[in-house]
Amino acid sequence: MLKKLTTSFVLSTLLGLGLLLPATATNANAAVSKAAVDTRCYYSSKYHRYTCYKKANFYRRHRKAVNIGAGAVAGAVLGGLIGGRRGVAIGSLAGAGGGYLVTKKQHSKHYTRKYYVYSRP
Fold first, then answer.
1. Which residues pair with 40 in a beta bridge?
2. Are 79 and 88 in contact (CB under 8 A)?
């Protein structure tokens, strides 16, 4: 019974997310205004240019939590399908551990994207 509920929940969630994706598409104006918000520019009188810093996207800023959470969810789904209620707990812990290992293996990406503009942006 629990396997059927878990499978139904996962499939209905995927279906619901699939239906929401076309509704969340943005137009070009929204993308431009978001890019303008995520960028900060400062004028340097020494070099007579603007230095602009671009804010990293959501995944770049929260990569560790996203990887661990995705691993835990995947492990919980597989554990629920294979082992029932105890399998969910064991699978989520194993998946979180796997997500942590993936995060530790990835290279560090802690840098700020910087570019120069010689006229007013």
1. 53
2. yes
The number of folded domains in the chain is 1
72 found inside a domain: yes
pTM listed for this prediction: 0.54
Cα(95)–Cα(100) distance, integer angstroms: 9
- Non-local (6+) Cβ contacts of 93 within 8 A are 72, 75
Q: Which alpha helices (DSSP H) does 1-121 contain, by range?
A: 2-20, 28-37, 58-61, 63-105
Assigned domain for 100 exists: yes
What is the pLDDT at residue 93? 95
Instruction: Write out the residue range of the structural domain in which residue 101 sits.
Output: 1-9+38-106
Helix, strand or coil, per DSSP, at residue 52: strand
pLDDT digits (tens, 9 = 90+) for 10-30: 766 766 656 555 544 444 444
**What pairs with residue 35 in β-bridges?**
none
